[in-house]
Amino acid sequence: MILWHRHESKPLKPKEKINLKLLELQAAKEILAEIFHARPEDIEDLIRCRLEERICTWEQAPVSNELWPEAFCLG
């Protein structure tokens, strides 16, 4: 005897895209908070200050007009 089952087809929900960089940043913040026994707000301030320092050093770096050499030789 064969049993026939009726299956109602249900539309599949599209999977949400996961931003891996955002997950990585969140994990890093949690690790820093745990290591330094700091509040999440303090970690945010720490990251913001470091980013501002980096931006300032980029703006002060001398700009070179020579990005690539005129000639390239392997020998």
Label this structure with key terms.
single chain, 75 residues, mainly alpha, 2 helices, 51% helix, 0% strand
Describe the structure.
The protein is mainly alpha-helical and 75 residues long. It has a domain at 21-59. It is built from two helices and no strands. It has helices at 20-36, 40-60. Helix 1 (20-36) crosses helix 2 (40-60). The longest helix has 21 residues, at 40-60. The mean pLDDT is 79.
Low-confidence stretches: none
Strand content: under 5%
Name the helix and strand elements from N-terminus to C-terminus, one letter apiece: HH
Shape category: flat
Class from secondary-structure proportions: mainly alpha
> What's the helix count?
2
Distance between the termini: 81 Å
Calculate the mean pLDDT score and round it.
79
Instruction: Give the biggest beta sheet.
Output: none
Please give the oligomerization state of what you see.
single chain
Please state the CA-atom Rg, rounded to the nearest Å: 27 Å
What are the SSEs and their pairings?
Elements: H1 20-36, H2 40-60
Helix pairs in contact: 1-2
What's this, in brief?
This protein is mainly α and 75 residues long. It has 2 helices and no strands. Helix content is 51%, strand content 0%.
